[in-house]
Amino acid sequence: MKILITGANGQLGRELANQYKEKKTIELILTRRSDLDISNINEVYSFVNRNKPDVIINCAALTAVDKCETEIDMAYKINAIGPKNLAIAANEIGAEIVQVSTDYVFSGNIDKSLTEFDKIDPLTIYGKTKLEGEILVRNHNPKHYIVRTAWLYGDGNNFVKTMIKLSETNTTLKVVNDQKGTPTSTVDLARTIIKLVEDKNYGIFHCTCKGECTWYDFTKEIFRIKGITTTVLPCTSEEFKRPAKRPEYSVLRNYMLELTTGDITRPWQEAIYEYLK
Ligand SMILES: NC(=O)c1ccc[n+]([C@@H]2O[C@H](COP(=O)([O-])OP(=O)(O)OC[C@H]3O[C@@H](n4cnc5c(N)ncnc54)[C@H](OP(=O)(O)O)[C@@H]3O)[C@@H](O)[C@H]2O)c1
């Protein structure tokens, strides 16, 4: 089976490539933005037609949530038009598509874990563009897997690395304690995507690690595992204003996985321990 991974130099792209390389029957095509710009319709159609993958896994996205608030056109081009181009190109050759999406398609205003059957209501440009990406993929290719994740870390830039770096130059750090979510390792997400594709289990899925915490709790756990002595103090979102509004309670329940293929993700504490060790 031939698998095209777009955005292969990002956190998730790298982990998927690592895991697929272990599988002898898989032929991988890995593209970075310089090889294939997903927002360019002609590039996408000719690349996909020439290479004829069986599955396209789209890991490319504009993930800088605050930047999306000002670079709106760019956000729509990468997060909505890009997936649309890939979905149409895949459909024309009978290929499947995996589109990775986000908890930001929800408002996160309700204190309840969210399933795939709950109401979507994005608050930010990032969330809106990612939602359009989901809709366009669903409309243009029936053989789709839409996988929503959150608070992702792996091989690349992420919250975990930022906090460790900040601890090197600060004796005290204030971290937001009124936003809840689930830190998720790219290892767990990639394993789940591979399983969904093996099972041909099409549809919309939530995939985060298990449990929940605030950014403050998460930082405390990172520092505990690493033996970092920097003091962590809780603060409010109000004290740490950002251009894009963050959801307050953004805990996803992997309900469709529970009901179908099975949920193979680990508790978030186990996954972060393995990542840091
Ligand atoms: N990170 C999170 O916390 C998080 C949370 C929820 C959902 N997600 C979703 O999970 C998926 C993977 O995220 P990630 O953290 O692995 O992302 P990432 O590390 O930011 O990687 C995204 C990759 O996309 C590439 N890219 C951007 N524009 C492109 C274009 N026009 N054509 C081709 N490639 C392009 C980027 O390349 P350049 O660096 O060269 O621009 C980058 O390598 C995304 O769909 C994201 O929306 C992430």
UniProtKB/TrEMBL annotation:
E.C. number: 1.1.1.133
Keyword Oxidoreductase: yes
Pathway note: Carbohydrate biosynthesis; dTDP-L-rhamnose biosynthesis
GO molecular function terms attached to this record: dTDP-4-dehydrorhamnose reductase activity
Residue span(s) of domain RmlD-like substrate binding: 1-276
Presence of keyword Glycosyltransferase: no
UniProt-listed CDD domains: dTDP_HR_like_SDR_e
Keyword set, alphabetical order: NADP, Oxidoreductase
Family: Belongs to the dTDP-4-dehydrorhamnose reductase family.
Known function: Catalyzes the reduction of dTDP-6-deoxy-L-lyxo-4-hexulose to yield dTDP-L-rhamnose.
Protein name per its UniProtKB record: dTDP-4-dehydrorhamnose reductase
The organism of origin for this protein: Clostridium frigoris
Lineage, highest ranks first: Bacteria, Bacillati, Bacillota, Clostridia, Eubacteriales
Gene that encodes the chain: rfbD
